[in-house]
């Protein structure tokens, strides 16, 4: 193993069979996606990501086992290719799924997210309007499954499919 001298991977250990050309490509990619950039002070606060995601999401309707929201794809949640970032998709899906599960699971139980799966079918580009629909697929004594679908409002095209599995845990009385 040999250390590379390029940034942002200057302190990284790189296998000897990785050529200098590949190292340079990787370093350029990491620079393009912002590796080693400093976090701005206004974002270096507790739970600032929730504020970021909450700033693009508005609730349309709430029913038992169903929630519908409107999402505006704004610049802060874009990936390097100009589409909605996968992390933002996951964050929105998690929040909508929790809210949806709460419509059927009593307050006497905590929800523990056991699994969140995401399928990326098409991009949601900058300034797109997206309808986010959450619905409870199954809810029992110990388990709740919620599907959250993201559709482009203009075309109705399905962009992302997600499924969240929650474990319904009794609240501890310690």
Describe the structure.
This protein has 174 residues and is an alpha+beta fold. The protein has three helices and eight strands; from the N terminus they run E-E-H-H-E-E-H-E-E-E-E. The protein has helices at 20-32, 48-54, 86-102, and strands at 2-3, 13-14, 57-63, 66-72, 109-120, 129-139, 143-152, 158-170. Strands 3-4-6-7-8-5 form a six-stranded antiparallel sheet, with helices on one face. It has a two-stranded antiparallel sheet with strand order 1-2. A hairpin with a 3-residue loop joins strand 6 and strand 7. It is globular. The termini are far apart. Mean pLDDT is 88; it is low at 1-6.
The residue fraction in helices comes out at 10-25%
Strand order of the largest sheet: 3-4-6-7-8-5
Number of strands: 8
Main β-sheet, in a few words? 6 strands, antiparallel
List SSEs in N-to-C order.
EEHHEEHEEEE
| Stretches with pLDDT under 50, minimum 5 residues | 1-6
Task: Count the DSSP helices.
Answer: 3
């Amino acid at each position: 193993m040999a250390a590379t001298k390029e940034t942002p991977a200057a302190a990284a250990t790189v296998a000897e069979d990785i050529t200098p050309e590949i190292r340079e490509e990787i370093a350029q990619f990491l620079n393009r996606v912002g590796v080693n950039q400093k976090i701005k002070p206004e974002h270096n606060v507790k739970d600032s990501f929730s504020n970021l995601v909450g700033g693009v999401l508005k609730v349309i309707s709430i029913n038992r086992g169903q929630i519908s929201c409107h999402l505006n794809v704004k610049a802060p949640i874009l990936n390097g290719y100009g589409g909605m970032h996968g992390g933002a998709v996951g964050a929105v899906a998690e929040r909508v799924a929790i809210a949806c599960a709460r419509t059927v699971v009593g307050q006497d139980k905590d929800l523990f997210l056991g699994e969140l799966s995401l399928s990326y079918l098409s991009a949601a580009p900058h300034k797109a309007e997206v309808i986010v629909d959450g619905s409870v697929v199954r809810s029992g004594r110990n388990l709740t499954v919620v599907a959250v679908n993201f559709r482009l409002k203009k075309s109705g095209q399905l962009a992302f499919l997600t499924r969240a599995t929650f474990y319904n845990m009794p609240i501890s009385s310690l």
